[in-house]
Amino acid sequence: MPVVRASEAVTHDLHGARFVSYASPRTGSRELCAWRGEIPAGTDAPAHSVSREEILHVLDGELRITLDGHTEHITAGDTVIINPGATLTLTNPTDRPATTWVTTSVGLEAKLADGTRIAPPWAN
């Protein structure tokens, strides 16, 4: 039975945020990936689109998310469904960090506004 202990989670830093990976093919998951996102105060993540559906749940703090031009303020307990191909930006406009839990399917890629493609290791 695959069990990923907190001490075994792999941490990645990108665009000012931290991604703490728990479930991925590396840890024994065949179809899903899951990670904790840590978004520092004042972070403005670059606009990007995703190749697979993502489910983002806010555990703590507040965020502003823009999805295909529609902006929402989300807080602890809120969940956002991000469909494949949607363009999103994420901002933490507050003076304290926010924490999220994100789930997607294995193989997610992100495409930045400049055309750069990223295959994040926490989702592959």
What's a concise summary of this model?
The protein is mainly beta.
List keywords for this structure.
single chain; 124 residues; mainly beta; Jelly Rolls; 6-stranded antiparallel sheet
Protein architecture, described:
This protein has 124 residues and is mainly β. It has one domain: Jelly Rolls (Sandwich), CATH 2.60.120. Helix content is 0%, strand content 52%. A hairpin with a 4-residue loop joins strand 11 and strand 12. It is globular. The mean pLDDT is 95.
Ranges with pLDDT <50 over ≥5 residues? none
Task: Give me the secondary-structure category.
Answer: mainly beta
The percentage helix is: under 10%
* Sequence of secondary-structure elements: EEEEEEEEEEEE
Regarding quaternary structure, how should these chains be classified? single chain
Total domain units: 1
Largest beta sheet: strand ordering: 1-2-3-10-5-8
Largest sheet: 6 strands, antiparallel
Broad CATH class: Mainly Beta
How large is the share of residues in beta strands?
Answer: over 45%
CATH topology assignment: Jelly Rolls
Note the gap between the termini: 20 Å
Give me the count of strands.
Answer: 12
- The best one-word shape is globular
Can you say what the CATH homologous superfamily is? Jelly Rolls
Radius of gyration: 14 Å
Tally the helices: what do you get? 0
User: Could you say what the CATH architecture is?
Assistant: Sandwich
Q: What's the average pLDDT? A: 95
